[in-house]
Prior knowledge:
With 211 residues, the chain is an alpha/beta fold. The protein is 45% helix and 18% strand.
Amino acid sequence: xxxxxxxxxxxxxxxxxxxxxxxxxxxxxxxxxxxxxxxxxxxxxxxxxxxxxxxxxxxxxxxxxxxxxxxxxxxxxxxxxxxxxxxxxxxxxxxxxxxxxxxxxxxxxxxxxxxxxxxxxxxxxxxxxxxxxxxxxxxxxxxxxxxxxxxxxxxxxxxxxxxxxxxxxxxxxxxxxxxxxxxxxxxxxxxxxxxxxxxxxxxxxxxxxxx
Length: 211
């Protein structure tokens, strides 16, 4: 039976991956949990506890092999395979996502954008085609789609999300600033990105620190 890992641990794994990538760029071959702790401002015991959820990876008196740990965390995060993404909503945010090339380096490939605006039909962003929403059914039937990003008005988000699930897309990256009804479906993975919530948290901390 697979161990149930807490979401708090999972949220920290991409940060480990990022820091280890920086160490590799610097030519560092091994690092102790104490040195990694100093870099990341996370306690060494927290690092050891987090990594022990997946097998540990370190050796007493040696620390961690940076390349090995980087590769293993990549596998844990599913970065050892390609994930095809479609974007629903080819406005400013949708096109910005399509233009962000770093996603591809991590294995996330945006393969198509969809919109209802006929003026966008036949256009592309970085050679990624913009298709009409009416073409979504046929596209999903004939192409592998692993993730759908929702960058469209929140009033349409629930119906589009349900349509995607009906078409077999079981992972939703939600930018629509609304909690989706499909989040109640345990078979569907939803990651919501509420940009204004993040700004409001930032605003709170600005106000708090100015008192």
